[in-house]
Amino acid sequence: MRTTVRIGLLILAAALVAVVLWMTASPGEQAAVGTPAPPTQGTDADGATFSLADYRGKVVMLDFWGNW
């Protein structure tokens, strides 16, 4: 019984350390508000290639969908 409790506490402590490290990690390069978006290219649903520069001056909503 004591071994089970010790293992549980060890797992809990490891999870807490992981959460603290994740929350305090410095984020990657972030764009500042008001700066231009980085160049982005992709394909639309019809297979046509597009560039974000094509929509300069217009409101654009990007929806990045992960399929993993």
Summarize the structure in words.
The protein is built from 1 helix and 2 strands. The protein has a two-stranded antiparallel ribbon. 34% of the residues lie in helices and 9% in strands. The chain has 68 residues and is of the alpha+beta class. It has a domain at 39-68.
Write a concise keyword list for the protein shown above.
9% strand, 34% helix, 68 residues, 1 helix, alpha+beta, 2 strands, elongated
Topology:
Layout: H1 2-24, E1 41-43, E2 49-51
Antiparallel strand pairs: 1-2
Concise description?
The protein has 68 residues and is of the alpha+beta class. The protein is built from one helix and two strands; from the N terminus they run H-E-E.
Strand percentage: 5-15%
Structural class, from secondary structure content? alpha+beta
- The order of strands across the largest sheet is 1-2
Radius of gyration: 22 Å
Spatial gap, N to C terminus: 40 Å
